[in-house]
Amino acid sequence: MRSMLVLFFVLVLPASAAAQGWVEPRPQPGPGLQSQRVEKLRTSVIVRVTDRVAHVEVDELFHNGGAGVAEGDYIYPLAGETVFSDFSLFQGEDELKGETLEAGRAKAIYEEIVRRRRDPALIELVGHGLLRARVFPFAAGETRSVRLRYTQVLDRAGDALRFRYVTGAPRGNGPIPQAPNAAGRDTDSPFMTFTLVAETASRFGEPFSPTHRLQATRDHGQLTIRPIENPTGSLDVFLPLAGPAVGMTLATHRVNGEDGYFMLTMSPGAVKAAPEPRDVAVVVDVSGSMSGEKLEQARAALRQLLGTLAAGDRFRLVSFSNAVEAQKPGWSEATRAAVEEARGWVDRLTANGGTNIAGALDEVFRTPAGPGRLHLVIFITDGQPTVGETGPDRIAARVEATRGDARIFTFGVGFDLNTYLLERMAGAGRGTVDYVEPGKSVEAAVGALANRIRLPMLVNLELGGAPVRLKDVQPSRLPDLYAGQDLVVFGRYESTDKAAAGELSIAGTRSGKAERFVSRVEFPAHAASGGYIPSLWAARKVAELTRTIRLEGSTPERVAEVRELALRYGLLSEFTSYLVQEPPARVQQSSRAQIGAGGGGGGVGRGSGIGAAGGTPAAAAAPAPPPSVVAEAPVIQARATALQRDARGLDDLTNAGRILVDGMRINGGAEMRIVAGRSFRLDAGTWTDVRHTPKATVVGLEPFSAAYFEVLAKLPELTPYWSAFETVIVAGRQVSIKLVSGGRSTLTAQELAALVSDFREQP
C-alpha cells in the first residue's frame, strides 16, 4: 500500500516568501519594535512593454495591526543584474524619497535583517539589490498603500526579449491576515496579482517561462500575460520576436568561475513554405486486455489522428492481437474518401487474443516511407509480447535493423508493460514514449502528440557554430522541430574570462532542402540570474543516464554519476530515492589532514578538510533499488524519467518528483518533506537529508552567523534548504552541514575552502 505521508514540494522559494516589498520597522528602544505589526494585505504588479522598455507599476497595501504607531523603511528587492530608472514612490498621495543600493551594498542590510529576525526565508534575497525609503508613520489600525513606478530596458536574449521580476520577500513582521483569492476563497499568503501587457502583440510569438506556467491572450492588438498560479521566486518571462522562421532564445547561468549553463529555446515562426510531407503509420494493440473502455479510447484516438492528416500526407493503419491485420497493404493518400474508409475500419476493431508485438512491427516496417517524406510511426499497446517473438532484446534489434529513418512514438497503456522495449524503440527512432495510467485518457495523450507533430518545420537538427565551446548538450540527439512547438535544449559552455558574443546557428532539413538559421547571442562570464537552468540541465542528464541504465544495464560508473548529479543539484531519481529506506554506510575514507574535532554536530569534524569522515558510497557496492510494494513501480519510474528528460521548466521537475515519491516505498511514519528535489525526514527536531548517514562527519554552523553567510555565498545551492528549515542537516559528497545552535560561528579561510571542497568533492 502506498505511503500516506504528507509531502511538500518546494523548488524555488518557501511559501512564506510570497510578496515583493515589505515595511521593515526601525529599531527602537524598549519593546517598541516587538509591538509594531505592519502586515501586508495584497500586491498588484502591472508591467507594460513598449518597444524594449518595460514600465512597471507596483501597488502594495499594508496594515498596522499593532497597538501603537508604526514606522520603518519600505524595502523592495531589485534583481541584481537589471538596470532600473525613473523611480517614483508614493505613500498614498505623498511622494517618498528612496535610494537604490546595488547588490554589494544591499548584502549587509539583508544579512542584518536576517540575523535580527532570524527568518531563513529572507536569505533568498541576499545577492539582490534593493530600493529603500522611509515611510510615514502608521497609526494603530491604519491601512496605507505604497505605489512604486520604474522603467527598465529589457534584455535581449537571442531572438527574444526577457523580463525578470523577483517576487520573493518576507510577509512582514507580523501575522498575515488571509486575503481572498480570485475565486473568493481564503489563502495563507498575501494576495498578489501580476500582469504583463505587450502593447504590440504582432511583434511577438508565443511567450514562455521556465519558472512559472503562463496564460497568454491576444486582444485589440495587445498581448496580455499572467501566471496561472500566485507567483513566487524569480519570475522569468521570454517574449520571442516574431519574424524568424526559427527564432532562438538563449538564457545562461554562470557563477564562481565554473563552466556555464545555457538554455536554448527554438521557436518556429509562421509556416510560409509547404511543410515536410509525412508518411504516418499507426499500430494499435487489440488484444483481449484492450477490451472495453481502452479500446473505445483507442478508436477515438485513431479517429482524431486521422483528422490531423494534411493533403500531402499518406497513412497506414495496423492492428494486432494473435494475428496482425493491415487496413491496406500499402500507403494510402490522405484524401477525404480514404480517411472516411479508414474510420470505418477503426469502428470495426474488436479486442481478443494475445499480443503479437513483433509481428506488428515487422508489418509496419515492411513498407518503407517514400523518398523525401518524413516517416512517423505511432505504436500503442497495453501489454507485453506473448505471441511470436517475445524477447524484448530481439524485438528491439529487429526494429533497429528495419526502421530506416522512421521516427517512433510509443504509448504504454496501464501498468502491465515492458517499459524497456517501449523506451528502446522510441530511443532508436528519435521519438518519445508516453505512459497512460489506468483511468487516464488514451485519446488525449495520442491527440496531443498528433497535434504536436502535425507540421514538421525542421528535421535532423544539429547545433552549429557558437562563440564558445558547447558541451554536454541535453538531449544529445536533437528531436525534430514542429510548427507551434518550442524545442528546449540545455547544456554547458566552457568557462571564459570575459563575455563571448557571436553567432549561434542551428542546421537541419526542410522539405528535403538544407536550412540554417543564425542568431546573435552572448555567453557572459558571469550571470547570476537563470538559477533554474543548472537544475533543469542536470534533470535531463540524470534522466538520460537512467534511461541508459534501463536499456543497457547498470554499471557502477553510471549509478555513481546519477547519484552524484542528483546530490549536487538536489534531484530525485530512482537510484537515490531508495535511500529514504536504508541509507548505505559510507566506506570511502579520506586521506586529508585533520584540522578539527567535533561532536554532537556542533563543531568541526574530523577527516577531509574540516569535514568528511566518509565519502560517497563505493560505486561497486551500490545496491539495486528495492522492489516496490506496488506492481506499477517500473511504469511510474519510467514516467518520471520521461518527464525529467523532457523538462522545460520547474513545474516539470516538481511533477517528476511527485511521481517518483508516489512509486517509492518509504518506511515508518516520520514526517517527510521534499525541498528542491531532496527528501528530508524530521528526526528528533532536525530535518535530516535522507542521504545523510550516521557515519558521515557533520560540520555544525550557527544559524545567521558570519560562518553561515560565508558558506552560503560559496555554496548557493544550499539556499532552498536553509530557507525552508531552521534546523537542518544537508548531505554533501564527503561531509554533511548542519544548522544548529552552538555550531561554528566563524571559519578561517582555509576551513571555508576545505568545507566547500568536501561538500562538492571538487579537486
Structure description:
The protein is 23% helix and 32% strand. The chain has five domains: 14-240, Immunoglobulin-like (Sandwich), CATH 2.60.40; 246-273 and 457-528, Gamma-adaptin ear (GAE) domain (Immunoglobulin-like), CATH 2.60.40; 278-454, Rossmann fold (3-Layer(aba) Sandwich), CATH 3.40.50.410; 532-575 and 627-664, no CATH class; 581-626 and 668-763, no CATH class. It is an alpha+beta fold and 763 residues long. An eight-stranded mixed beta sheet has the order 7-6-10-4-3-15-17-16, with no helix packed on it. A seven-stranded mixed beta sheet has the order 1-34-35-36-38-39-37. Strands 21, 22, 23, 24, 25, 26 and 27 form a seven-stranded mixed beta sheet that branches. The radius of gyration is 28 Å and the shape is globular. The chain is built from 15 helices and 39 strands. α5 (357-366) packs parallel to α6 and α11 (633-645) packs antiparallel against α12.
Largest beta-sheet details: 8 strands, mixed
CATH topology of the largest domain: Immunoglobulin-like
Please give the CATH architecture of the largest domain: Sandwich
Q: DSSP helix count? A: 15
Mean pLDDT: 78
CATH hierarchy class name of the largest domain:
Mainly Beta
Beta-strand percentage? Answer: 25-35%
- Fraction of helical residues: 10-25%
* Through-space gap between termini: 44 Å
Numbering strands along the chain, what is their spatial order in the largest sheet? Answer: 7-6-10-4-3-15-17-16
Rg measurement, Å = 28 Å
Strand pairing plus helix content: what structural class? alpha+beta
